[in-house]
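I have been asked to look over a protein record a colleague put together. Thanks in advance; the entry in question is below.
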Amino acid sequence: MKRSSLGSLAILLALALGGCGGKDEDQAKTEEQSVVATQSDADIPTWLSPTDAMDTGRWLASREAGRPMANDDAASAQMRRSLGQAQAFFIEDPRMIANRTVQLGQMLGEAGKTERYEDLLEGLTNVARGAKGRQLYGEMCQHYFNTRQQGDEPAAAFAKLAERYGAQRDGETKP
């Protein structure tokens, strides 16, 4: 009887240990696919971090296109110019402005109001150009999103923001 219990215990232990070290086929496939996805997406990070070496204009153009763009591509160059202009009117650095532009674009897209990143960047820069001092880009993005959610088309939303932010310059307060 003692020998039978030890034999059963040995079999159970062998089965348990046999399942510990190996991966089943589905798990191995999932890990392989996730590595492939990570490698293919590595050229365009989801968000641009301070340590990313990718040019900000190229990153923004690539995110909008949904594929890696060349650094010397016309869209990359245009985004670089627009980010450079925006930098003069906003407190955030170009990297944060680019990240916020993508975030705003995604929020608008989820609401069924897809807009080009370039149009958002230029429109908000024009609003800030008429305001007093440097502005917070993230805050302005939120104001723009809220205005669009109220039903205004892009031109009307930018006009409302321009009036509101322009009042700062004139010493007025607008709600």
About this structure: Residues 53-175 form one domain.
